[in-house]
Amino acid sequence: MSTLDETRIATLVDRFYDKVRADPAIGPIFNAAVHDWPEHKRLLTAFWCSVALRAASYRGNPMAVHRGQPAIRAEHFVRWLELWRETTAEVLDADDAVQMLDYAERIGRSLRMGMGLPDRLDARPLGIPVVGIHS
């Protein structure tokens, strides 16, 4: 049985974005884009409550926000997901962590597609694989 509620999601979001801010790979991108961290955490708590609890509390356009950040690359999504996986395992019970990870993977895939970024790091956009040149 799920123990997800707004308080648990807020704790997850708070811990997760503390890690994001300090991360050498994605921290600089987030820190340049987010000017009010408490507000950003409130907004993302509303987003995740809307996703996981069907709360309909989020009003925004994640695709437009991410498209407005030209520094974002596919490897940033990989790192974001690693931190999300780590934090969900720390904060949530196993079933809720799996569910939140599933949501994050689907959302990430959708955002990458919408931004024209490859789904895998060893692939080019449009699914054309990277082939090494051998001499």
Characterization of this structure:
- The chain is an all-alpha fold.
- Helix content is 64%, strand content 0%.
- It has helices at residues 6-22, 27-33, 37-53, 62-67, 74-91, 94-115.
- Helix 1 (6-22) crosses helix 3 and helix 5 packs antiparallel against helix 6 (94-115).
- The mean pLDDT is 86.
Tell me the strand percentage band. Answer: under 5%
Order of helices and strands: HHHHHH
Distance between the terminal alpha carbons, to the nearest Å? 57 Å
Overall pLDDT metric: 86
Largest sheet: none
Number of strands: 0
| Unreliable residue runs | none
Task: Tell me the Rg in angstroms.
Answer: 16 Å
- Counting H and I runs of at least 4 residues, what is the number of helices? 6
The global form is: globular
Structural class: mainly alpha
